[in-house]
Specification:
Elements lengths: L1 E5 L4 H10 L7 E6 L18 E5 L8 H6 L5 E4 L5 H4 L4 H21 L9 E6 L16 H19 L5 E6 L3 E3 L6 H13 L4 E3 H14 L5 E2 L1 H10 L1
Helix pairs in contact: 1-7, 4-5, 7-8
Bound molecules: NADP nicotinamide-adenine-dinucleotide phosphate.
Length: 239
Amino acid sequence: MKLIIVGSSGFVGKELVRQAITSPAVTSVVAIARRETPVPESLKDSSDVAKLTSVVCDDFLNYSDNVKHQISNADACIWLMAVTPSNSGKMPWDEVRKICLDYTIAGLEELSKAPRDNAKKPLQFVYVSGANAERDQSKKPWILGDYCLMRGEVETRVLDFAKNSNNAIEACIVKPGLIRDPQQGNMLINTFQNVATSIINLPVVYLHDVAATLLNQATEGFEKETLDCDDIVRIGKKT
Ligand SMILES: NC(=O)c1ccc[n+]([C@@H]2O[C@H](COP(=O)([O-])OP(=O)(O)OC[C@H]3O[C@@H](n4cnc5c(N)ncnc54)[C@H](OP(=O)(O)O)[C@@H]3O)[C@@H](O)[C@H]2O)c1
């Protein structure tokens, strides 16, 4: 299958690319980001770097002909591009909203129009959100309230887009808590994170399990419309 990963240059994207080029179910990975996606380090013998095509996109509202060509004939797309909460204070709110919401919907529009040989089966679209994203716009969380409501709005828009896509797109929302890479960080950082996440009731999940869950759902089909942290731990461990 041909897999598109948007936001492939980031923390989750790099691990997802590493797992995807090792998966026998994946024949081609198109990694789209605003900069080159690096070839992953410490690859297994079964990894096939030839499966990976790095595509640089300089306008996520108006795709170039090259990007349109690269997304054609895709079977699945995993969408990782967003401004994370820690970066959201570093730029104007309108910009955060544009990157998180407008870029995602523009991407869905292009994917739904892209030519596909296997058009009878909907393109599988996995949107990675966050555990505290809130779809109910009347329930503002006490911390990062505007951000959590905005990410919840994106979840609703993605699901609505798929429902109205005339079977072009099938969507799944994945909602990780704080994602931890055991290869990085140290005991002090982990302890601080554990205290902070317990105060805001945010579960911790591991990077391997998140990427494995995303890949499993994109290649094998969606278990359900929304996957939470318990689902990520369960699916990630068995793959
Ligand atoms: N990390 C966590 O603990 C965590 C927890 C829960 C949910 N999530 C969600 O998981 C997804 C991926 O997170 P991550 O940790 O991998 O984030 P990340 O490392 O910041 O990567 C995000 C991706 O979005 C791209 N991006 C950011 N701003 C952009 C812009 N203005 N224009 C174009 N591309 C832009 C980044 O490009 P560059 O590489 O060039 O910056 C990167 O490819 C996000 O939706 C995030 O909210 C993450």
